[in-house]
Design brief:
With 422 residues, the protein is α+β, with helices and mostly antiparallel strands. It contains twelve helices and 18 strands. The strands form five sheets. An eight-stranded mixed sheet has the order 1-11-12-13-16-10-9-4. The chain has a three-stranded antiparallel sheet with strand order 5-7-6. The chain is elongated, with a radius of gyration of 27 Å.
């Protein structure tokens, strides 16, 4: 959500910010509704003030035995006008909120220009991709040949984009989640959260999934939304809260199932585990002081990178361009892991700074230690990491010619000492 006062003072800058995202100019429409809303508020205040005065006059007239019929009629008419004005205020407020609620966040100044992912900027490559003396296979070929990755059975019960993992691969999936949680809680100081995985409309609106991306979500018959990421419930922990400045930053980590309809990805990654309707993910969320969110963004991204490095996986860091940055984000780094079977890098984590965009939608504030009033917090999140895609990366990077898969040393304690899946 955007600050109407800031738009009022900076209409050209607001439209320029929308233009970077390929959105039409909107400041004039916002300000038109804002002017109407404020004029209506002023009129309401005048009507209510006159009604109060007239009510007092009625009492004074009656106390003197006078005729107050004219004043009584005026109060009745004023009451009707106030009710009409309140209804108009509600309509204008809804129109303004609907308009603002559908507009994306404005980008940070250092986000590169561009209309799609082809303009994303590579910042750094870390690690050397493994070299094989055989033709590396894709993860689903490895998993199926091991007899531990079953798409056919999943398809019979649930349809496409689901998988059944068995035996050591099921344990590897569980081990990855535990490893990531332990790393983020013990080394990086995050507080572990086990949140609900169904939320109401206001929670999904608060983090920007609604109303724009309803088609990307699964909805239950009673109107609850299955979360696409733990970002939604975890960030909403500070919804309508006022935190003390000294409590910032607040850092949370959650390991949850996530659900995505993948409505816009027909034909993409139909084989394998890259793009599933249901998957596990470890999510990092930070609630930050506005003056510290840029540094917090680098810090959080570093924590996601640490997972890849401890697992010995080669990756690169990308800054997303204007046209590829998500609706709610001011700036996003993508971490892309090397997949030998596909001979390319694929996204395994997105780490974003949202500024006060989500906080305004959630009314999440903090009380400065000095001065009066409250300020909106800044929110950030990132995958730390997507568990399924990390499993994919391990299968492809640690595969052997005989079809077995070595287990990275960091995961072996979580696998009961097992060193190889065969």
């Amino acid at each position: 959500m955007h600050d109407v006062k800031w738009i009022r003072e900076n209409p050209e800058a607001f439209d320029a910010g929308l233009d970077r995202r390929g959105e039409s100019a909107c400041a004039a429409k916002v300000l038109e509704l804002d002017v109407a809303r404020r004029a209506n508020e002023t009129e309401l205040q005048d009507l209510q003030a006159r009604r109060n005065d007239a009510s007092k006059e009625i009492g004074a007239v009656k106390s003197k035995g006078g005729d107050a019929d004219v004043l009584i009629a005026e109060v009745a008419e004023l009451k009707s006008k106030v009710q009409a004005g309140e209804e108009q205020a509600r309509k204008l407020g809804e129109q303004l909120n609907t308009l603002l609620g559908g507009l994306p966040n404005l980008l940070a100044e250092d986000v590169p220009e561009g209309i799609d992912e082809s303009a994303n900027v590579e910042i750094e490559r870390v690690g050397e991709p493994p070299q094989f003396d055989f033709e590396p296979k894709q993860h689903f070929e490895i998993g199926e040949s091991l007899g531990q990755m079953d798409f056919e059975s999943a398809g019979r019960m649930s349809g496409a984009r689901f998988v059944v993992l068995k035996g050591a691969l099921a344990r590897l999936e569980r081990a990855l989640g535990q490893f990531m949680l332990d790393l983020h809680t013990t080394e990086f100081g995050y507080t572990e959260i086990s949140p609900p995985t169904m939320v109401r409309d206001d929670a999904a609106f608060g983090t920007g999934q609604l109303p724009k991306f309803a088609d990307d979500l699964f909805c239950t018959t009673n109107g609850m939304w299955l979360i696409p990421t733990a970002e939604v419930p975890v960030t909403n922990l500070v919804r309508e809260q006022i935190l003390d400045e000294d409590a910032l930053p607040v850092r949370y980590v959650a390991h949850t199932l996530c659900y995505r309809a993948e409505a816009g990805s027909a034909g993409k990654d139909t084989r394998g585990m890259i793009r599933q309707h249901q998957f596990w993910k470890v999510e990092l969320v930070s609630i930050s002081h506005p003056d510290q969110s840029v540094d917090e963004h680098e810090r959080l991204t570093g924590h996601a990178r640490a997972v890849l490095e401890k697992l010995g996986l080669s990756y690169r860091v990308m800054t997303l361009c204007a046209g590829d940055t998500g609706f709610s984000a001011r700036k996003t780094y993508d971490l892309e892991v090397w997949l030998p079977g596909q001979n390319t890098y694929r996204e395994i984590s997105s780490c974003s700074n949202f500024g006060d965009f989500q906080a305004r939608r959630m009314s999440a504030r903090f009380r400065p230690s000095e001065g009066k009033g409250t300020r909106f917090v800044h929110t950030l999140n990132g995958s730390g990491l997507a568990v399924g895609r990390t499993l994919v990366a391990i299968l492809e990077n640690y595969q052997r010619a005989d079809g077995s898969v070595a287990i990275p040393p960091a995961l072996q304690p979580y696998m009961g000492g097992l060193e190889v899946i065969s």
